[in-house]
Amino acid sequence: MPVSASGLKDAVRKGLLREEQLGPLLEHLREWDTRHGPRPKFDFTHLLYYLGGMVAIGAMSLFMNLGWEAFGGWGIVALCAAYALAGLLLTNRFRETGYLIPAGICAAFVLTLTPLAVYGFQHGMGWWPDDSTYSEFHRHIKLLWIYMELATLLVAAVLLFRYRFPFLMMPLAVTLWYMSMDLAEMVLGSDLHWRERRLFTCWFGLGITVFALWVDIRARRSLDYAFWLYLFGVMAFWGGLTVQNSDSDLNKFLYFCINLVMIGCGAVLMRKVFVVFGAIGCCLCLGYLANEVFEDSWLFPVALTLIGLGIIGLGILWQKHEARITASVRSCLPAPVRELLDARHG
Fold this sequence. Notes:
Blueprint: H1 5-13, H2 19-36, H3 44-59, H4 72-96, H5 100-112, H6 114-124, H7 146-163, H8 169-188, H9 194-218, H10 227-242, H11 249-269, H12 272-293, H13 299-320, H14 322-331, H15 335-345
């Protein structure tokens, strides 16, 4: 939980902390922030950091147009090398001066140049097999992109080993997400039905989510490296699950139960992404019941109202007994998960 100077001073006034301890404690917290950098938060400074970073990253990825094709393959490689050199110089400069969030964004910018550089290299060597362009990389599913994605994962491993910035996990997670769709074509064949693609994406997303939990446990004593993996893993799993077509009420009930489990996992792991997508899934199920099953029933809205009030009452009971319930639930978890929750959230 965040600790403020005013909170510590209030603790001194209440006799919970001796006044002579306040100065050294504040100095220790300042040194800790200097070593680990400020945590990401929603203020104007961090908004400018991430807005500028996403504009620069988007310029070299999502918003890349055909203009760069005029430079040819080796021209693209040279331009990427120049951009990467500038990005690395800025990364090192920002890190040395203590601006760790801009440093991490610049390192992520360098990483997003990798697929474009590989694309240019393949063109320069004459290895590009068709007339597709880089601008299609973020829009179309093709096995052709797999070399670009593998190179991006390799560069991500090198940059993470060198810099250890959590924001580097964002382009890495996006690459894994793209790769899941391209690998479906390689593993299952190009003529597979849309249903098989959705199932593959669902299972791949579940695998990324489990991998995110492993990363979270391994890095429980340091910074949060699992956030972006959780985000894209849950998105892939939930998205693949949600777009499954089924006329079976049993399958819809199972979908509702899976979303409830996601909400429970989010509550235990303190990860909002599980709760958000689980809640959306539950609302979709309730919408189906309202529009299809109980379309003309006047009792259904009444029942939903009572259920909503019951959930609010459950929240009140949870707030009253949160400490005891949390301790009981955590005692049933594996030791590494308990250590993770204690390290992250106390």
